[in-house]
Design brief:
It is a multi-pass membrane protein. By secondary structure, the protein is mainly alpha-helical. Helices cover 65% and strands 6% of the residues. Among the domains are: 97 residues, no CATH class; 88 residues, D-Maltodextrin-Binding Protein, domain 2.
Length: 526
């Protein structure tokens, strides 16, 4: 039973306040267990896909979603291997215990560090290699910390490392990941080593990069907003595990430890990036599946057994569980109201964006902020009515889900087209013009904030320069070394171009070829 912490030796014993109830007897409650598994799966899948962080970063051209996919599936593959190996060992121990008095031989140890990984463990190593290829060492460091901490807690570190065939597993990861890095280093040299391993990995952890600093509580806010509205139920979903009862967890069957493993997954990523000096919301993308698992297991228990039963068999535990549900539901309603108000007032919060100077005006004129505010306001009212009715808490999840789907259909989808029109359409248009007007051998340069999408739109090599004087010096060097043509196509925002014209260029050294949105396409020769 993945759904709970009940069962023999599990967490759902008598007097548990937040854990699943004990597993029912096979005769009377077996259909409920099957139902619980399906409820967990459907709710978990919905929560993983439908939350603000996933929706936003799934539509941004960065590698965080791919890292989350590789890392998340790797961790789930590990747990499947861990749980299934535990079930096979339980069956084997029963057979050995029946014959032990006759043979007087100890149980065999079929694994060693040099065992070749099989099944889900093999899939785990392959996915870890893909995570390393996606974003470097972090793809193996974070899963290693999560799994290591989890195994130490349940007292199975050495045993599971033997089961995993960790030596061969690491060899598989290295064999899949290292060749690509070797080829890239050979092609780009020390510059790649310094930027990728030094700047994008080590420096981001030890110092502030690109002014992305934040206070220690930053990620509490990110989880609250980024996993809204489901974040309302994270505290009670975590408390239900009673993770402080280590002895109970160490004696529980492996297959009942999914919630505990998800907690270590959640805490591992949260803690790692809280310690890191550079902080960005996208760093918590790989945490969202763990949060979804925690909340979905809690909801599936509620749907299967009821709010009173999940608190344990005594009245005190049942009362605490029901109170926790009501408090979480109340916070859910408040959060929905805050979200609705924030969406309604959002045009006032949009600051100046040099890439889309009229963005606030466009959002205000679109009416999307009003639609979004109304949707979340209706959701808050509906949630209040369901919580007020006896047993109405069963509809809280549905209210949140329907409200979020409506928000996606009527606000996020139109807003994505609006954002594309304001920010990306000018880049697409000017990139297409650049391909049409370029001279043979002419370089394509972008000055200012780097937009990697320009390289995709134009299908050309783009030289990016953050400093104006460096870009002009590069163009001067082109005139000296490649006199045919002695110019470069430059994509630059209008405000910056006015400063460059005034300080670094003469009137006969540039020609404006096209403009779109906040950008201009210019031919500069020195």
């Amino acid at each position: 039973g993945q759904g709970g912490q009940g069962g023999e030796g599990g967490e759902g014993g008598e007097g548990s306040d937040f854990s699943s109830p004990p597993f029912p007897t096979p005769d009377s409650k077996k259909p409920n267990l099957e139902r619980q598994r399906w409820i967990s799966a459907w709710i978990g899948g919905a929560l993983i896909a439908i939350n603000p962080i996933t929706l936003v970063w799934a539509r941004i051209g960065v590698s965080d979603m791919l890292l989350s996919g590789c890392m998340g599936t790797a961790l789930l593959a590990f747990f499947l291997g861990y749980a299934r190996r535990g079930m096979s060992q339980d069956a084997g121990e029963k057979v050995f215990s029946a014959t032990l008095q006759k043979t007087y031989s100890p149980l065999p140890t079929p694994y060693s560090l040099f065992s070749f990984p099989k099944g889900w463990y093999l899939i785990f190593y392959i996915l870890i290699a893909l995570a390393v290829l996606t974003k470097g060492p972090v793809g193996i460091v974070i899963p290693g910390l999560i799994i290591g901490a989890f195994l130490i807690y349940v007292g199975k570190l050495r045993q599971v490392l033997l089961e995993m065939g960790v030596i061969w597993g690491l060899c598989i990861v290295l064999a899949l990941a290292v060749p690509w890095y070797v080829l890239v280093i050979l092609a780009n040299g020390e510059d790649y080593i310094n930027k990728f391993f030094g700047y994008h990995n080590f420096e981001r952890f030890t110092s502030v990069v690109n002014h992305h600093s934040a206070p220690w509580y930053f990620y509490f806010i990110v989880v609250l907003v980024g996993f809204a509205p489901w974040s309302s139920y994270l505290p009670v979903a975590i408390a239900r595990l009673r993770f402080w009862r280590r002895n109970r967890w160490q004696s529980s069957p492996r297959s009942t430890q999914l919630g505990l493993f998800a907690l270590f997954w959640f805490a591992g990523i949260f803690g790692f990036f809280t310690i890191a000096v550079t902080k960005l919301p996208s760093y918590l993308v790989p945490l969202m599946p763990a949060a979804a698992i925690l909340v979905s297991l809690w909801w599936s228990d509620l749907f299967t057994y009821g709010a009173e039963v999940t608190g344990g068999e005594n009245k005190k535990g049942a009362k605490k569980a029901l109170s926790a549900l009501i408090l979480s539901g109340g916070f859910n309603i408040v959060l929905l109201l805050v979200i609705g108000a924030a969406i309604f007032l959002s045009p006032n919060f949009i600051g100046y964006d040099p890439a889309a100077p009229k963005l606030a005006q466009l959002v205000g004129n679109s009416g999307l902020s009003l639609v979004g505010g109304v949707i979340w306001g209706i959701a808050a009212i509906a949630a209040s009515l369901t919580l007020w009715q006896r047993g109405g808490w069963r509809w809280l999840w549905t209210v949140n889900f329907v409200g979020f789907v409506a928000f996606i259909l009527f606000v996020i989808t139109p807003a994505s087209f609006l954002m594309d029109k304001a920010r990306q359409l000018p880049l697409r248009q000017l990139s297409a013009i650049a391909v049409q007007v370029e001279l043979p051998g002419e370089e394509f340069v972008m000055m200012g904030f780097e937009k990697p999408s320009v390289a995709f739109y134009s299908q050309r090599l783009v030289h990016y320069f953050d400093e104006d004087d460096e870009a002009i010096a590069h163009i001067e060097n082109i005139a000296k070394t490649h006199s045919n043509p002695p110019s470069a196509l430059v994509l630059i925002d209008t405000k910056r171009f006015n400063e460059v014209k005034e300080n670094l260029l003469k009137p006969d050294e540039y020609k404006t070829l096209a403009s779109a949105g906040a950008y201009q396409l210019v031919r500069i020769s020195k």
